[in-house]
């Protein structure tokens, strides 16, 4: 069955370290997204991609970067982790602009 | 002010009872409005989707309604089960990839 996976599921890192969160989908969807979820807030869009070599900034993109070298993967990199980036990160993919987004299981990141 | 506000923040009900969750929004028009269910430690999963012109949509024991005049949507859960314990998130797609997520309602169903 097609799916979307994230790794690691849990990560603890120190302030200033570079961290990369992986996202892999087997639906062959062109569109992929990264969100962060914090208590009291709805999911907030970090970056998104319409296809290979395409990346776009979302509403909370500062301190994050993504790259899209193939259809299946959209890794999220925190260049220099900050305590404010402690959050749960969700990756999602969708076949079309207004289609349902399929979410991964999430990565809980703690920056100490 | 958030563009999508959900109420209540949390709710506790007994198994077998019905409940209604509310979503008020300020964005209009929009492409579609979805309700997602998010189990603890999991990603959200779509329950229902309604376009701007639809009034109601059902998925088993879940029924979503939409009132474009009052800019309100509700999710009604009938005969609740323990497995309904989750967060329920109201999401508006305002066109293209622009989606606005509510903060969610945390539902606890007790035996």
Structural class of chain B: mainly beta
Question: Major β-sheet of chain A, in short?
Answer: 7 strands, mixed
> What is the approximate shape of chain A?
globular
Q: What Rg of chain B, in angstroms, do the CA atoms define? A: 13 Å
Q: Could you tell me the number of beta strands of chain A?
A: 11
**Number of distinct helices of chain A:** 0
As residue ranges, the low-confidence spans of chain A are none
Order of helices and strands of chain B: EEEEEEEEEEE
Multimerization state = heterodimer
The helicity of chain B comes to: under 10%
The global form of chain B is globular
Strand content of chain A: over 45%
Radius of gyration of chain A: 13 Å
Low-confidence spans of chain B: none
Alpha-carbon distance between the termini of chain A?
37 Å
Short description:
The complex is a heterodimer of chains A (112) and B (111). Chain A contains no helices and eleven strands.
3D structure, described in words:
The complex is a heterodimer of chains A (112) and B (111). In chain A, a hairpin with a 6-residue loop joins strand 4 (31-37) and strand 5. With 112 residues, chain A is an all-beta fold. Chain A is built from no helices and eleven strands. Chain A is globular, with a radius of gyration of 13 Å. Chain A has strands at 4-7, 10-13, 19-25, 31-37, 44-49, 56-57, 64-66, 76-78, 87-94, 102-103, 107-111. Chain A starts with a strand and ends with a strand. Helix content of chain A is 0%, strand content 46%. With 111 residues, chain B is mainly β. Chain B is 0% helix and 59% strand. Chain B is built from no helices and eleven strands. Chain B has strands spanning 4-7, 10-14, 19-25, 32-38, 45-51, 56-59, 62-67, 72-77, 86-95, 98-101, 105-110. In chain B, strands 2, 4, 5, 9, 10 and 11 form a six-stranded mixed beta sheet that branches. In chain B, strands 1-3-8-7-6 form a five-stranded antiparallel beta sheet, with no helix packed on it. Chain B is globular, with a radius of gyration of 13 Å. Classes of the chains: A mainly beta (112), B mainly beta (111). Chains A and B meet through strand 4 and strand 5 of A and strand 5, strand 9 and strand 10 of B.
């Amino acid at each position: 069955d097609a799916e979307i996976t994230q790794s690691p599921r849990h990560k603890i890192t120190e302030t200033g370290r570079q961290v990369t969160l992986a996202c892999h989908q087997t639906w062959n969807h062109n569109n992929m997204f990264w969100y962060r979820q914090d208590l009291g807030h709805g999911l907030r869009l970090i970056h998104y991609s319409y296809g290979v070599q395409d990346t776009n900034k979302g509403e909370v993109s500062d301190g994050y970067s993504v790259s899209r070298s193939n259809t299946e993967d959209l890794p999220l990199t925190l260049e220099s982790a900050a305590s404010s980036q402690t959050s749960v990160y969700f990756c999602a993919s969708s076949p079309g602009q207004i289609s349902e987004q399929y979410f991964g299981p999430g990565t809980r990141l703690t920056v100490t | 002010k958030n563009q999508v506000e959900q109420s209540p923040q949390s709710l506790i009900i007994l198994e077998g009872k019905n409940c209604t969750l509310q979503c008020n929004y300020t964005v209009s028009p929009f492409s579609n409005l979805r309700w997602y269910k998010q189990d603890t430690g999991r990603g959200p999963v779509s329950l229902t989707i309604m376009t701007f012109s639809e009034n109601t949509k059902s998925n088993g024991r879940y029924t979503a309604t939409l009132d474009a005049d009052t800019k309100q949507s509700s999710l009604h859960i009938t005969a609740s089960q323990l497995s309904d314990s989750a967060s329920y998130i109201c999401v508006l797609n305002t066109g293209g990839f622009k989606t606005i997520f509510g903060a969610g309602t945390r539902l606890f169903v007790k035996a």
